[in-house]
Amino acid sequence: MKAKSRTSSTRTPRPSKQLRQRGRPRATHGAVGKEIIVVAASKLLDTLPSHRVTNLQIAKKAGVDPALVRYYFRNRAELVLAVIEYLLANWNHTHQLPASNNADRISVHIGNMLDFSRRVRSMQRLMIDECAESGDPAIRKRVRDMNMAVVRFYAEMLHLDADEERTSPIPLFVHVATIGLCEFFSAAQSMILPLAPARMGKEQLAEKYKEFIVSLMLDGLRSRID
Q1: Cα–Cα distance for residue pair 131/128, rounded to 1 Å
Q2: Among the CATH numbers 1.10.10.10, 3.40.190.150, 3.30.565.10, 1.10.357.10, which is that of 76-225?
Q3: Which end of the chain is more exposed for a tag (fewer CB within 10 A), N or C?
Q4: pLDDT of 188-211, one tens digit each?
Q5: What does the DSSP assignment read for 7-56?
């Protein structure tokens, strides 16, 4: 019996595997930028204590490979600061100050500060613990620049000249006092609300408090802004 001859099969050569260059990792859901990671992180930080928000959780929320978080952000402080800058930019875009007299501009600014503190209750804690005390000088500089912009705003509203702006601590004190007045009210709701007058809900209480701190600050600054 004649043996069957083997038919030589022509195989399509496989493309040689190329080593992926170091750098940006592949994302599971296509190309993404920093913003999708920042948005995901901001949503998690809005609902969870900061120490419980990990890169893995952020990547899962964003639907990307965790390596992409590490690619875009060298360290946690850089990611947290990017979240803070993102939240502030979006807030300022929709809450612009009126082009009117300085008293009105300060009033609206303080009101916005309270509303923002109630919306993003962890921001100042995040900025202090994870950014202002960072070992990265570039991060600390960005925090300083962010706060100096507000201090300079108050210096302008208080009609300080160049020499006074360099030497007077008043604009800084106004900034610090406003943060304290807004942050404590927002963070201590569980203690404050049970003390509120009967039948006064938290939104009404917040509006009354806003009126109070605006009046308090303006009364103290009236001689300088008139």
Answers
A1: 6
A2: 1.10.357.10
A3: N
A4: 999 999 999 998 999 999 999 999
A5: PPP-PPPPPPP-PPPSSSPPPTTS---HHHHHHHHHHHHHHS-GGG--HH
